[in-house]
Design brief:
Number of helices: 13
Strand order of the largest sheet: 2-1-3-4-5
Order of helices and strands: EHEEHEHHEHEHEHEHEHEHHEHEHEEEEE
Distance between the termini: 50 Å
Oligomer: single chain
Length: 456
């Protein structure tokens, strides 16, 4: 029995696809071992979102070959897809497999090991395919939360982003296939489902048919084609027996309309946790990024969510030091995020990515200024996050428990509320709470980002 070790880099879509690849290899009889151990085959699911991601991908490939020089090292995914010639040239790499070929990894690997030429079947021109790469999970690496991939590709072409070239255009998964996968995972004991994709707000944009399951969103003038299909999918998932929680991945701010939010609020199992990617609070910077909304439109969406849900968690992404970002522009972003009072912000220093328009822009911002601006935003984020969590002191919540962990010398069960606030309850001897939803009251702060839960 051949052993396989794997390492995953990048986004939740990559994590879903890694789980699916491992599942197919296990079904073929391969044994999965830790990446740090000696294995017959190493698989690195690469990322290419920044130059740093490319470098990390190469480092992990070389680490694999160093661990076992006789092993077959397989480079899979976005780094391979965006620059196949560079991936092929890596001395550590024996086999490359691009996006939209991950579902075939077991067959491609088997043919390669049998001495066959698999170059023609291991990578395609991703920009010209309309096929969604169908994969189906029966279990995941996470034991309490299942990520469900609903679409691939992106048509937005932000000036800093290489992903449309690595992932291709928007390709949506059939609703029936998504529901079938979730039903199987519910039967396997999963309670929480996170819908993920490269640009899930575009779900259904490529569907030729207009049919959806729920008539109330088919012809409504306030719904775009995309939002109709996404809402119909959410409504169908919400009705699956055994689904306790539904979370959404990153949403496009423009999809947040009054009618869209009203439909979300009507769903029983949708968690009030929304990630709206901002990137900048300055209109001029957003234009240079080719983001198709204004700060005012974004803030209107935030207000709609806060009106429809009780204290919803709203999180975001921010890029500091984008080309030509002045002190005045950065000041506008600071003011915006202070007013928005996000639960969490993922703050990134702009990383120049070759083959993107932003990489060629004039007035690249020095690294020390990027770092300074990042630190300023992190201080705002820490205070806003603290304030958001403090709202729950004395309030009753439901927590989906995930793992037992030692904190300050004592054992606790730790999980997340519907708003994705981390909470912990002191473990009792012999008590197993994993994958259970526990009701209790938040009575204090255990650590900076962990609230203390007390149960009766």
């Amino acid at each position: 029995m051949k052993t396989v070790a794997f390492h995953n880099l990048g986004c939740k879509v990559n994590a879903y696809e890694m789980d699916a690849m491992l599942q197919s290899l296990i079904q073929k009889g391969y044994q999965i071992v830790p990446f740090e151990e000696k294995a017959d085959i190493y698989i690195v699911n690469t990322c290419t979102v920044t130059n740093i991601a490319d470098r990390k991908s190469r480092q992990m490939l070389h680490k694999a070959k160093k661990t076992n020089p006789q092993a077959v090292v397989v480079a899979v995914g976005c780094y391979v897809q965006s620059d196949p010639s560079a991936a092929k040239a890596e001395e550590a790499v024996d086999l490359i497999i691009g996006n939209n070929k991950k579902k075939n990894i077991a067959d491609i690997l088997e043919r390669y090991l049998n001495g066959m030429d698999v170059r023609e079947e291991s990578i395609i021109d991703i920009s010209h395919t309309k096929e969604y790469e169908e994969m189906k999970l029966t279990g995941t690496q996470e034991h309490t939360r299942a990520y469900i991939k609903i679409q691939d590709g992106c048509n937005q072409f932000c000036t800093y982003c290489i992903i449309p070239y690595a992932r291709g255009r928007v390709r949506s998964r059939k609703q029936a296939d998504i529901l079938l996968e979730i039903q199987g995972l519910v039967a396997a004991g999963y309670k929480e489902f996170v819908l993920t994709g490269i640009h899930i707000s575009s779900y259904g944009a490529d569907f030729a048919e207009e049919s959806v399951l729920h008539e109330d969103v088919v012809n409504h003038k306030n719904f775009s084609k995309n939002s109709r299909h996404l809402l119909a999918l959410l409504q169908a998932i919400d009705k699956i027996a055994g689904v306790e929680r539904i979370r959404l991945g990153s949403l496009e701010p423009r999809i947040i309309t009054q009618e869209f939010v009203r439909k979300l609020a009507d769903m029983q199992h949708l968690c009030p946790h929304f990630h709206l990617s901002l990137q900048s609070g300055c209109a001029e910077t957003l234009k240079r990024m080719n983001r198709h909304y204004t700060p005012e439109q974004y803030m209107e969406g935030v207000a709609l969510l806060r009106k429809a849900f009780v204290h919803p968690a709203i999180t975001t992404d921010i890029i500091t030091g984008f080309p030509a970002e002045t002190e005045e522009e950065f000041g506008q972003t600071k003011q915006f995020v202070e007013a928005a009072a996000f639960f969490e912000m993922h703050i990134f220093k702009y990383s120049r990515r070759k083959e993107t328009k932003a990489a060629e822009m004039q007035q690249q911002v020095p690294e020390q200024i990027k770092a300074q601006r990042s630190q300023e935003l992190q201080k705002i984020e820490q205070e806003a996050s603290k304030q958001f969590r403090s709202f729950y002191l004395g309030k009753e919540v439901d927590v989906l428990m995930e793992e037992e962990k030692e904190l300050s010398g004592e054992k606790y069960w730790i999980g997340h509320t519907r708003e994705y606030v981390k909470a912990a309850v002191k473990a009792q001897y012999g008590q197993i709470l994993s994958n259970q939803i526990v009701h209790g009251k938040i009575t204090g702060v255990l650590q900076e980002d962990i609230m203390l839960l007390s149960i009766q």
